[in-house]
Amino acid sequence: MSLKQNYCYKILKKYSLIIDFDGTPTRKTVPSPVEGETYGQWKNRVLGDSASNVVLYTPTEPAHQTRISTLQNRAGAESLEKIFSAFGKTKEKQKKSAINEAIENTEQKYETFSRDTLRYLLEDSSESLEPSVVEFFERFLNTTNPNIDTEKLISDLMTAYNAAVRMYRERS
Fold first, then answer.
1. Which of 24, 34, 28 is closest to 10 using CA atoms?
2. Is the pTM here over 0.70, yes or no?
3. pLDDT per residue as tens digits for the range 110-138
4. Phi then psi for 45, rounded to 5 degrees?
5. Residue 135, Cα to own-chain centre: how many angstroms?
């Protein structure tokens, strides 16, 4: 959204006025309303001296015989269309960003779990676990990462279990 379109949108939000003008806004933020202010005072204060061809889009009911093409020519809403188009694009970007963030958070939830969870499970069953099993899990607790990678844990468990079964078979 261009600087001018963004400024017009901010005016819409603050004053409930749909506006268009030629020039560049002299301010970055739209000032707050002033009680009893006239249009001329408002225009100078909010838009500055460099704004020209200021148009306010106000609801009017045209005569029934007025041609649509006449209304379209009067409206001259090309800039307004750009504002709404840019607003739609901005909203679409925000929506996509929120969706991507939700996907990442969901993946994070299922790909990892906190070290505290593993620590709690170890403490809860430490009396029934063999010392080598406790040592195995302590390695994961001593990593610097606050979350434990589920895939890595399962892979390491499979490797350790496979090695233990192989050693058992070789000795049997």
1. 28
2. no
3. 888 888 888 898 899 878 888 888 888 88
4. -75, -40
5. 42
